[in-house]
Amino acid sequence: MTEMTPLDLAHAAMEAAPEDDAARLRFFERLADSEMFVLLSREPEGDTLAPEVFETEEGQFVLVFDREERLSAFAERAVPYAALSGRVIVQMLDGQGIGLGVNLEVAPSSILIPAEGIGWLAQTLAHTPGEVEQAIEELRAPSGLPEVLLTSLDQKLASAVGLAQAAYLVAVVYEGGGQGHLLGFVDVREGAEEALAKAVGEALTFSGLEAGALDVSMFDSSSEVAAYLAKVGLRFDMPQPEEPKVYQPKIPGSDPDAPPKLR
Asked: Where is this region: Disordered (predicted)?
């Protein structure tokens, strides 16, 4: 039996509960986050791609697959293709009147997404919550947030390599009495603010929650607020890029446990 991919599993959950909006949102989140292989009509020319467009009674569709072998099984011959994230493909197709055929005929997650669905997904992915501007009066340990949101945040931030050192989820009270929850990022890489805010917005949207359910802010690790975040907040470790490995030649005889061999 072919191994089920994350997209297969999300599709199966959606099919098993057609009235469950959360399951449907999770499928589209997996689609956006997955690397997809796009069937092309010809080899790429520089940065220019020409996806193969299929005409059907239901409209025009571009075909994508979440595994190279699935694309090969569908095409049954050597074909040109490009590997792109689902979100990039959606952005390319938005407004073109073209839908998306996902894993057609070769996987349990086979599905046609019409152009209207592509437009909805593109708008959803484009949403970016604003950064908090109110003065913070008090920070507390978070409480009452649904597990689906915590899981979604964990998955989103696990892919944000090198964008910040850490993130902390806290309950917050603002000056003037406003209350809510805040995700504070510490030592954010310059220029990464929008990408991080967008990731949080997607986690909210695909968890079925309102954008206002979570605020976002950025702090320097030397600040008093950052220290208090670390004290009371729920920490999300942010992955860091691997340090480049430098080849260091070993001098023969320098290791007493591994003396040079004589011939």
From this structure: 240-263
